[in-house]
Structures are given as structure tokens and as C-alpha cells.
Amino acid sequence: MTDTQDDTFVSGYLLYLLAASSEQASTQFHDHVRARGLRVPEWRVLACLVDNDGMMITRLARLSLMEQSRMTRIVDQMDARGLVTRGADANDKRRVRVRLTAEGRDLAESLVKDARRHETRLLSALADTDAARIKGVLRTLLDVLDKPDPA
Amino acid sequence: MTDTQDDTFVSGYLLYLLAASSEQASTQFHDHVRARGLRVPEWRVLACLVDNDGMMITRLARLSLMEQSRMTRIVDQMDARGLVTRGADANDKRRVRVRLTAEGRDLAESLVKDARRHETRLLSALADTDAARIKGVLRTLLDVLDKPDPA
DNA sequence: GTCGAAAATATGAAAAATCATATAAATCGA
DNA sequence: TCGATTTATATGATTTTTCATATTTTCGAC
């Protein structure tokens, strides 16, 4: 074992548990993503676009949990690399529609498969009851957080 | 509501749910931390040290979910600012023991109180069953992730 | 229609984070 | 006890990320 102190605060703090779980659960797969030649934010963009091609920059940024100006640059690089294309929206010239190229789609679909396999492995390492609960609990938390602050 | 598409992959993907929950749940409190004049990594250091004063750099880095070289610099800055002191370990001169100053401790304890209040509010926004489950589920996940890969 | 506000994206400059590696101390065997 | 390894921390160079703000387009009230 590494360090077992019965820390009074941190080790039981919800925000710590969330951050640490996310971090640790993602590490393996993120390594895999990098081994495939992508940075994590790029993988996120691909995953979003497989679900819904032609998203605009702002929405990609929200879903990928990052800032708009960063997303602009990431899309630039992915464009330069031939994974996506940028196109103007017909109805609103401010918007940039990001679309997968054939190459981008292949890579994206392949990684989504890998991600699903990895997720299955993760969940199967949990007891059935925990595996059944975890997504529901997190979804509920997200729902609650979306609602405007009652205060 | 913002964007409700029934995304096939991302919105139900465990690593997304974890990252998004962590991100969203933390935003409010992190804003509070910054309003108090600290960056998030600095708050994490303070929280660790309240639990266990005199930690070494490496352990602080692990617990705060960041790299050692980054932690070195963060501790430097906190030292310069008078929140912590750096002292050599008596038995092992490689180690740097980081300790709270009086000022650092005051700030840390005050923020821990704030964090607890915030956590209580978060949990109370969940249904009782979810609130009761969430920490347990996350702890289980962390436990599982700590174990060496069975593959 | 026109004007002011809001929305979407882009960009330069600054700050933060990472990476590779250096240094120094402890540990472990032969 | 010497040398090879490992552990702990530090640091220079580079890459990422953020921040503030500019630009362009749309929207809404009048």
C-alpha cells in the first residue's frame, strides 16, 4: 500500500473523490490515446463529432470541458492535420461548423470502440451493485449542477 | 435547457461523466478559492497540510493530483508568500518537509470550513439515496483503480 | 430600417504546466 | 565499502492554457 493515513478531510472530501476518480480512471485510456498520436483534447473533439458531426466551436468546447479560445486552436490543428474541416454555417456566418474528414472519422470510430472496451473493463472491475449505480449517481449530480443555484 | 441531443456515446460514457461531474461540481468552489486569492493547486496543498502537516513534496504532488516538478514550484511560491515553510527532513536530506505557517494554517482552516459547507450544500441537493451512495461508489472505484492491472 | 446589445470566433501576450534531465542523497548487494 | 540503483527534488526549455480583448455577425427593441 502507498500511504495510509486516516486523513480527516481530503480523503473523504467529495470534490477530491470526484477529481481523483476521474483522473485515475482516465489515465490508462489517455495514455492509449496519446499512443495513437492524439492529445486528449483532440480525442474529445473526435468523440463529440462522432456523436454529432458539424458541431460549432462553442458547443464542442462546452462538451469537451474546455475554453472556447483553446478549442479554436485545437480545431485549427486538427484541421491542419486533416482530421476535421471547418465550414461556415449557412444561416449564421459567425458560426464555424466542424466536420470529420474520412480519416478523422476512421480514427474517431476506432477510438470510440477502444473506449467502450476500456469502459467495460473498468465497470467489470466493480461489484455489480456499484457498477449499476455509478453512472446514475453521476448523471444525477450533473443534473443537479445544471440547475440554477437556488440560493 | 441547453443542448439536449440524445448523444449516443459521450453523454453516457463513464470517463465523461466523471470528468464533467468533477469539473462542474468544483467550479463554484474553485471560484471561491480564487476570490480568496489562491490558485486551485495552492488550495489543494493547504488542504493536504491541514490534514497532515510536514508532508514531503512528492506526496503532496500525488495527493494534489499533479506532477512533482509543478509541486516544487507551487511550494516555492507559497513559501515566498509566507503560507508555508520548507524544511529538510532530519533523517533523509533529500526530502523537503512542507509546513504551514500560522498565516497558512489560518487560511487553510478557514477554507476547509468553507469547503465543508459547500460540500454539504452539494449533497443536500441530491436525493438522500444518491447522496448516501456517491462517496462510497467513488471510493470503491478508486480502490479498484489502485490495484495493479489484472491483465 | 437603425442602433445597441449579445453571440461566435480569433488572437496576442502572459501565465501555467510538462518534459527531459540534472543533482544530490539514500539504499542495496556483492 | 564501493558501485550501481533508486528516490527526492530542482530546473531550463518548450508546449499548453488562460486572459483579455478585437472582430464579425446576428438579434431585438423601437
Mean pLDDT of chain A: 92
Strand content of chain A: 5-15%
What summary fits the major beta sheet of chain A?
3 strands, antiparallel
Rg of chain A, rounded, reads 18 Å
Kindly describe this structure:
The structure is a homodimer of 151-residue chains. Chain A has 151 residues and is mainly α. The first copy, chain A, has one domain (9-125): Arc Repressor Mutant, subunit A (Orthogonal Bundle). Chain A has helices spanning 14-35, 40-51, 57-63, 68-80, 102-124, 128-146, and strands at residues 55-56, 84-88, 96-100. Chain A has a three-stranded antiparallel β-sheet with strand order 1-3-2. In chain A, α2 crosses α5 (102-124) and α3 crosses α4 (68-80). Chains A and B meet through α1, α2, α3, α5 and α6 of A and α1, α2, α3, α5 and α6 of B. Chain A binds a DNA duplex (30 and 30 nucleotides) through α4.
